[in-house]
Specification:
By secondary structure, the chain is of the alpha+beta class. Helix content is 31%, strand content 29%.
Length: 690
Amino acid sequence: MKKIYVILLTLALTTSGFAQVDRSRLPEPAPARELKIGDYETFELKNGLKVFVVENHKLPRVTFRLVLDRQPVKEGDKAGYLSMVGQMLRRGTTTRTKEQLDEEVDFIGAFLAASSASVYGSSLTKHKDKLLELMTDIMYNPTFPEEELEKIKKQTLSALAADKEDPESISDNVSTVLTYGKDHPYGELTTEETVENITVDDIKNYYNTYFKPNIAYLAIVGDIDKKEAKKLVKTYFGNWQPGTVPAPQYEVPQPPEKTFVALVDKSSAVQSVINITYPVVLKPGEPDVVPTRVLNQILGGGSSGRLFTNLREDKGYTYGAYSRLSADRLVGEFSAFASVRNEVTDSALVQFMYELKRIKDEPVSDDELELAINAISGSFARSLERPQTVASFAINTARYHLPDDYYATYLQKVQAVSQADVQAVANKYIMPERANIVVVGKAADIADKLTPFGEVHYFDHYGNEYTPSAAPAIPEGLTAAQVVGNYLQAVAGNHKLDELQDVVMESTASLQGQELHIKIANKMPDKSMMSISMGTMELQRSVANGSDYAEYQQGNRAPDNPNSKLDGPIRGMILPETAYLAKNLAMELKGIEKVDDKNAYVVQVVLPSGAKVLEYYDTETGLKLRSVSFFKGPQGEIPMSFEYKDYREVDGFTFPFVMIWPLGPGVNMEAKATSVKVNSGLADDLFKIE
């Protein structure tokens, strides 16, 4: 029942041999010079639209990127609607339905996308008029269909449900709230409640207020010249009407007066997600921007950074530790982050704080400085190979009121950064003594170890602080086997469990707009089958027949996996608890934890392969609420949480009619049962292994 297939794409990295060089010495850098940034032409329409044209005739393609230069918008109790504006622009116009738009875009091999503050289109040069016709159609004539908004809201709610179980998403949420505050537009979170509040009028009001040419920049890049571009722009954008656009002001968020720990309890976590974060006042174009770029490169900008070298290479606490120091017109952010094993959470934090303090107190070495400067210079130089970079530079120069030669002299500014400059900005922007330390992990294992770093406060996945209550005590004498037995009895009701001879459950689920059909069949005591189909095509199937087990992908048998052969027959059962008891698997009652505001007994089960599963049973009803399996990923074990809801009675037996399956970190699929049949006399052929 919990068996899912995960297809991983592996990228192979090849290396070439080089002549021997003296690796103990870094190459001498060439003196920095003023760069020749690619040429661009600019003009402005009477309606205020500012246009930048970058010619590049290497390929017969052209792109149009429109950017709205607006202040951040506070969404309030309708947080999330901004993320829907772009999608709604593409869902139909007064002249075309969504399907017609998609068909016409596909017919010319173009790409057309939008967000709340941009519209982007790309096509072959010969189709540029058609592309602009489509692009301006969604800009000028959107209909914002109600039924399309409901689809988007449904997708958003599904994503939110998945995010609740994803430690990285939880960390992002809490970090956002603590860094900026809920009253700042950067600190707002999309929740189920705010999504339900969103209406088409919210989308329309935003569109009517902010889609104005006098706050817009249009970058045209590709196989086109200024004369032709100007003609096109006047034709398609000349009648766009300007208007007054709000420019609200916001309070600048401040870091906390002293460092404290924000702990989010994730009881199934085997890793702790750490993020040390706070706001910084650093605006684009300010003199400190370049030295802070060098500072961050040395501290945590990549695999040569101090955080990576310390926490991964030296200590082996994590697969990667990094930092980020960003500039922004309103307020920037510093963060240092990693995912580490539960048992080294406090040790990792010690090293984080050590490195933050060290980069303030000690000058960086000559080698570190040179390596960082070379890395930044190389990245900048490579970016110049893309014509879109020139357009971005042009827009940034205008938006942020940068000097005309800001990017032309960028490498000179990078090369001029000294050790003293790095230490100066470190002392200005690195503040381990005034940071939010956000940790998402298993509180029972790590909470006490976090107190040396600051007062520990508990937060939920949306950044709301709460006072944790003591977990209820396990009733004296209660065992894991009894909890599992109680669950089976709750399923059987007034029947004896051995009266259940077979059961077949058919469900439907939606994945990326496609409907899936899921069939799970069990015949006691040891036959099971699960298949997933799309239309008439079977995507995958697993079959267990006694001790034999096989998996199929699109009709072809997959290579046998030793662990799957051991655990697959159990994972594929609707009631794996029968096997837990029959096979006398090792089980341990770990405690009582909350699952959706319900108290649940947590039972750890060791499967035949040695893999562990955590089962959560309602302390009141005995029914299973959640099951957490652990799979090996590139950064260690990944917990995958399966939810069971909407229990209903079928011929005296009780089964969940809603199951939420994980497809990957932060991505879930909700399967709703359409049919459950008990003791229907399933034929053995259904469980035949070929």
